[in-house]
């Protein structure tokens, strides 16, 4: 064995040896979180690059994510990491505008693109392509991007390689009807495609740190189905009920050993038929979430419905009352349904306080946030009258059966106002709550 081979065998999990040595043209690497997919592909690409630059050849690697804003913190950093692991850092220059990493001597380049800017992909004139990588492939809108860009890049193949291998890495979505879960069954039929599934359990080299293993155990204990999806990469299906109600731990009092240090408010508003549902959330020192109390007003069947100026007063009073009970807690955010500008303006006019409109995602993506928090066993609901409706609505919250067997599942939009505010709370405080989905 050469010293290079020794080095690689200490970096690449034995699980990926088959993929590493394979002569296939397409590689689909899927599996659970933390199964070394991204790191392995980044190492592979750097080794391929090294082979070319050592011979003085110019070679280019194309790396694509669903969205340009995610490039820098993920694939760009990932390649820098891999270059470091392979002692190649000094040979390269990293640029952020535009995002590029290039080899000093040969000008060989790692290009990074977001599929949300298709014009950049199309106008790409990089020749000498030696590989393509689609990272987080499940986040793409569909397989069209692959079908459109692969031929373009493959046409620009470097004369020094036989083929341009294409790598796809992703964690399978829960929903078996999600496009990528159907797409992969097609790929399995392609003799020129290697489909590989990995999990964190494939860690023969002992890279996974204890803290990570402890977190995984927490998921496994609290919500085995969620664990199977997130860490074993199984398509567990959506089920009919969106939430497992056992994960909303109803309690009579707070935990004296873990005080509430922060508060956040989140509101879903409605004026004609839909209710206004405002929930006060407490966040503890250990980042547990307490559903403290809920304010709920439904204008349905009321002959005279409350005006925004009446509602803002009631909301303000409710918040003042709750804050009084937790005088030491600091308010970190007030989140409001982004569809409602009127209430937001009214509140600012009345109280000079700005609510943050939530940046909504697709329903199934938004639901991932509360589900992740719940699956970690971090949600507690105070048994107070105001929260009855919170529990009731979450218990009833369901996928619309007619849409469950599709790529775009929808929820039944009835009595889901506290469910909406809970999603908005999780989404807009995701960073603070350390929620990675
Ligand atoms: N060769 C290695 N040495 C040390 N840590 C590694 C190595 N390869 C991977 N890791 C770590 O393992 C973790 C999971 O790897 P990653 O490739 O991100 O998994 P996935 O893409 O499957 O979710 C990362 O935190 C990464 O830093
Ligand atoms: Mg990854």
| N-to-C CA distance | 40 Å
Counting structural domains, the number is 2
Low-confidence stretches: none
Task: Catalogue the ligands.
Answer: adenosine-5'-diphosphate, magnesium ion
Total number of beta strands: 15
CATH superfamily of the largest domain: P-loop containing nucleotide triphosphate hydrolases
Strand content: 15-25%
Order of helical and strand elements: HHEHEHEEEHEHEHEHHEEEEHEHEHEHHH
Q: pLDDT average, as an integer?
A: 95
For this structure, the CATH topology of the largest domain is: Rossmann fold
The main β sheet shows up as: 8 strands, mixed
Look at the helices and sheets and give the structural class.
alpha/beta
Number of helices: 15
Which descriptor suits the 3D outline? elongated
What is the topology, as strand order, of the major beta sheet? Answer: 3-4-5-2-6-7-1-8
- Shape-level CATH architecture of the largest domain: 3-Layer(aba) Sandwich
CATH class of the largest domain: Alpha Beta
The percent of residues in helical segments reads 25-40%
Using only C-alpha atoms, the radius of gyration works out to: 25 Å
């Amino acid at each position: 064995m050469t010293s290079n081979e020794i080095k690689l065998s200490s970096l690449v999990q034995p699980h990926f040896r088959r993929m590493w040595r394979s002569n296939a043209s397409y590689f689909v690497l899927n599996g659970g979180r933390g199964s070394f997919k991204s790191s392995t592909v980044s190492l592979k690409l750097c080794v391929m690059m090294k082979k070319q630059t050592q011979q003085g050849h110019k070679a280019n690697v194309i790396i694509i994510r669903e969205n340009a804003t995610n490039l820098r913190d993920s694939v760009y950093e990932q390649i820098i990491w891999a270059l470091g692991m392979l002692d190649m850092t000094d040979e390269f220059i990293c640029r952020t505008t535009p995002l590029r990493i290039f080899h000093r001597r040969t000008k060989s380049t790692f290009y990074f693109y977001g599929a949300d800017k298709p014009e950049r992909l199309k106008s790409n004139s990089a020749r000498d392509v030696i590989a393509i990588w689609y990272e987080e492939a499940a986040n793409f809108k569909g397989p069209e991007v692959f079908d459109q860009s692969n031929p373009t890049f493959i046409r620009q193949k470097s004369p020094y390689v036989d083929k341009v291998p294409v790598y796809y890495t992703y964690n399978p979505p829960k929903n078996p009807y999600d496009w990528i879960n159907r797409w992969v069954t097609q790929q399995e039929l392609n003799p020129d495609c290697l489909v590989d599934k990995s999990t964190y359990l494939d860690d023969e080299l002992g890279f996974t740190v204890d803290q990570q293993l402890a977190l995984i155990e927490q998921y496994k204990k609290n919500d085995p189905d969620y664990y199977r999806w997130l860490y074993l990469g199984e398509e567990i299906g959506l089920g009919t009920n969106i939430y497992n109600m056992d994960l909303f731990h109803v309690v009579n009092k707070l935990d004296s050993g873990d005080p509430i240090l922060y508060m956040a408010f989140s509101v879903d508003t409605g004026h004609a038929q839909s209710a206004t549902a405002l929930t006060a959330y407490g966040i503890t020192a250990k980042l547990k979430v307490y559903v403290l109390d809920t304010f709920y007003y439904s204008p349905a069947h009321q002959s005279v419905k409350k005006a925004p100026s009446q509602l803002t007063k009631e909301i303000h009073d409710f918040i003042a009352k709750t804050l009084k009970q937790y005088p030491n807690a600091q308010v970190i955010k007030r989140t409001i349904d982004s569809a409602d500008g009127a209430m937001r303006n009214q509140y600012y006019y009345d109280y000079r306080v700005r609510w943050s409109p939530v940046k909504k995602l697709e329903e199934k993506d938004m639901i991932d946030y509360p589900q992740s928090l719940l699956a970690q066993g971090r949600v507690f609901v105070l048994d107070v009258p105001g929260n009855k409706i919170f529990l009731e609505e979450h218990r009833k919250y369901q996928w619309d059966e007619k849409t469950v067997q599709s790529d775009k599942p929808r929820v039944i939009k009835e009595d889901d106002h506290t469910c909406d505010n809970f999603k908005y709370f999780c989404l807009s405080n995701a960073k603070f709550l350390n929620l990675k989905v």
